[in-house]
Write a structure and sequence with these properties.
Number of helices: 10
Number of strands: 0
Structural class: mainly alpha
Distance between the termini: 22 Å
Strand content: under 5%
Length: 191
């Protein structure tokens, strides 16, 4: 359960102000159909983060524990720094127009799945699965974290985005990543 809670909180905080949250706002404003958008986000995230968690587990089989420890610790510390750099959404209107022929659900699914590739939440999912040795709980936690951040964006739109202290949320998320990275090193060398 610890893996689930950490994964949920890390990704929920990392997702605030992230490009996929901004994409959720844009899709909600464009299609005005929150239920198919949320179902598509849930499915795209579950598949993407499931594959990412499996990759994280696989990495633990090909790297020595010592190398893996340093990669994970430095990766979490790097994610802490990355959290402090706000994301921007490019001109996604063109992308939405390109995929609109697949309907609200199809366009949302495709755009979310593609937007998550290489995104900080996907990288965090790989690292969390490698750190905690739990594909299922990490996938569930990171998916719930994505939904916690994106569901309000879909339902409330940019009214909510203007009221959230995104900078503070990013700093809290960065602090969590930093603590997880440093604690991995401390636990290995002192316990």
């Amino acid at each position: 359960m610890y893996e689930f809670l950490i994964s949920t909180s890390v990704v929920a905080l990392a997702e605030m102000g992230d490009k996929t949250q901004l994409l959720a706002l844009l899709l909600a404003a464009r299609f005005r159909k929150p239920i198919p958008i949320l179902i598509a986000i849930l499915l795209a995230t579950t598949i993407n983060h499931g594959l990412s968690a499996v990759l994280g587990q696989w990495i633990t089989t090909v790297l020595s524990p010592e190398i893996l420890l340093w990669i994970l610790a430095l990766g979490f510390i790097g994610m802490a720094i990355w959290m402090l750099i706000p994301d921007e959404l490019g001109d996604e209107t063109e992308s939405i127009n390109k995929w609109q022929r697949f309907g609200v659900f199809g366009a949302t699914f495709i755009l979310f799945f593609l937007a998550e590739i290489g995104d900080k939440t996907q990288i965090a999912t790989v690292a969390l699965a490698a750190r905690f040795d739990s594909v299922f709980w990490v996938m569930c936690g990171t998916t719930v974290g994505m939904m916690i951040a994106n569901a309000p964006a879909v339902f409330i739109g940019d009214k909510l985005a203007d009221k959230l202290p995104i900078s503070l949320i990013h700093k809290i998320g960065a602090a969590i990543f930093l603590v997880v990275g440093i604690s991995a090193l401390v636990q290995h060398y002192y316990f």
